[in-house]
Amino acid sequence: MTSTAVTTRAEAKPAQAGKKRVAPWRNPWRRPYVLSTITWLYILWTTVPVLIAVQFSFNDGRSRSTWQGFSTQWYCCVEGSVGEDPSLLLALKNSLFLGGATVLVATPLGVALAMGLTRWRSRTSKVANGIAMVPLVTPEIVLGSALYVVMVNLYQFVPLGRPAMLLGHVTFSVSYVLVIVRSRLLSIGGDYEEAARDLGASPIQAIRTILVPLLMPSIFASAMIVFATSLDDFVVSQFLFGDASNITVPIKLYNAVRAAPTPALNALATLLLAGSFLALILAYVGLRAHRRGSRSPLDDLADYG
Amino acid sequence: MGEQEDRHDRATRRLWPALALPGTFWLIALFLVPIYAVMAVAFSASINIFGEPVPAWNPLDWRYATFFDVVQASVTGPYQEVWIRTGVYCVVALVICVVVGFPVAYYTARLAGKRRGLILALILAPWWINYITRMLAWINLLQDDGYVNKTLGIFGIAPVDWLSGNSYTVVLALAYGYLPFFIIPLFASLDRIDQRLLEASRDLGSGSVRTFLRVTLPLSKMGLITALVITALPMAGDYYTNTLVSGSPKTNMIGNQIELFLLQGPLKHYGASLVLLLSLVLMFFMAYYLILTQRAGRDAQ
């Protein structure tokens, strides 16, 4: 698509040069300076503050607004650094544990749901499909408060804290997995499984040997996206975390930001950032391994969002 | 042979529902039941010795006194101001999203050329940076002695106290926070427009502006609506942005009120009633969006 635009632009130029000069604002093929400026300013606006925050995690002093030289002290080994402050370390451990556990529960659940709902065509499956989409559009505060209310009043056997947070994170993650895996299921169609079945495979065999390998890139990508989303979640965690021993990184950042923070907080945020980006790069690599046609995996990621 | 196929069919017919069962059960137990629990608490008939509501699980026991109280307080009473503020903040922030986000999405989808991959990656990046981290970054910059005030100082402008109860800081923070979520769906829809349609419009004599208004805009209407809904829903329930960059009750949004009632103190039936009221207000947008996506999904098939 882009290449057609480029060739047309190249052809259009000599034709125009022959005629009288066109005023720049009337020339449809002029370079889009205004739009490109807005775009690059927007990119600077969104990324530079975060880069500065990352930079200050390496500050050789207590200030978060005056640069005092490079040091890794806030990651480890000065008092109050991530490595030395038990509460920061605990938050990091809790976040990673919760993210991992959410992936382990939500991915199989979501993949099975996607296969079931996509291939099973009936009225019930349509209803179930509708229900499964609702969490995606429910404001987090509604989901968070609903889960909090139900854990406190009805599911009292699930204590607030890690178990409740895990249930909450899986609930919003299942829908992500469903959307990602279903789009892949629809694009590969049902022919491969049918061929396997015709050649004598049992339904379970067809799923295990044909469908799951075909879905693998999207399963992997959705697992990584679930991990990153779980690491980043604030609202659901905040409603369900119970007491300070179950705090996650976003909650810690939220609580500490207004109470005399040190660059250790920036270091903690940087580690969280590194975690989600690592997951995302892995998802990208996974998607690229099975790219379809000329679409970039970035476009796929954009679609999933 | 026919018998075998029959057996195949029956096995498959049972297999797909069996696969869908655990996930469906999960969503019923941890999504639908919780929503019902909010209603049971909001319509609670009695309070226990701690002053907390006793949930009324049977719809026949529902009492609507608290809910009507909350509705009345929202329409004419003390919450009216909070609702109006929430609405105004969201509308202004959404306008900023459209003004900034549309050009960015349009440029990335249609004009970025060989830098497209890079720009797309940079636009996707903030999506994966934790929201609280992005706010933290701005709080660093907006401190009294932060870079923003230092920069203003160069031009001889007196330092501004950004972080204590400023409406414009909250609105800008909301716009900043939600812009990535606005741009991506819009990008996806602009990206799908067939370049040939735009060229046809130009070949038939329309200028850039007319082409944009008569072709691009109508074709991206769905994407724009999706982007607005996706952004507006979480923004309307946002409470953390406000706490982080303002922390003053002067800028409280309805989400702050809900968090206050539910997590701090015994008045959980008031919190639950506010959640229901907020959901009712947003339901319209949610339903609209779900119908749009279902229709788009059907067209795609």
Report on this structure.
The complex is a heterodimer of chains A (305) and B (301). By secondary structure, chain A is mainly α. Chain A has helices at residues 2-18, 33-56, 86-119, 123-137, 140-153, 162-188, 191-198, 203-232, 235-240, 249-256, 263-289, 297-304. In chain A, helix 3 (86-119) crosses helix 10 and helix 10 packs antiparallel against helix 11 (263-289). Chain A is globular and about 70 Å long. The two termini of chain A are 22 Å apart. In chain B, helix 2 crosses helix 3 (79-111). Chain B has 13 helices and 2 strands; from the N terminus they run αββαααααααααααα. Chain B is mainly alpha-helical and 301 residues long. Chain B has helices at 2-42, 65-75, 79-111, 116-128, 131-142, 147-154, 167-191, 195-203, 208-219, 221-236, 240-245, 254-263, 268-300, and strands at residues 46-47, 53-54. Helix content of chain B is 76%, strand content 1%. The model of chain B has no long low-confidence stretch (mean pLDDT 86). Chain B has a domain at 78-264: Orthogonal Bundle (MetI-like fold). The chains are: A mainly alpha (305), B mainly alpha (301). At the A-B interface, helix 1, helix 2, helix 3, helix 4 and helix 5 of A face helix 1, helix 3, helix 4, helix 5 and helix 7 of B.
Summary of the model, kept short:
Chain A has 12 helices and no strands.
Give the strand order of the largest sheet of chain B, numbering strands 1, 2, ... along the chain: 1-2
Q: What is the CATH domain class of the largest domain in chain A? A: Mainly Alpha
C-alpha Rg of chain B (nearest Å): 25 Å
Strand content of chain A: under 5%
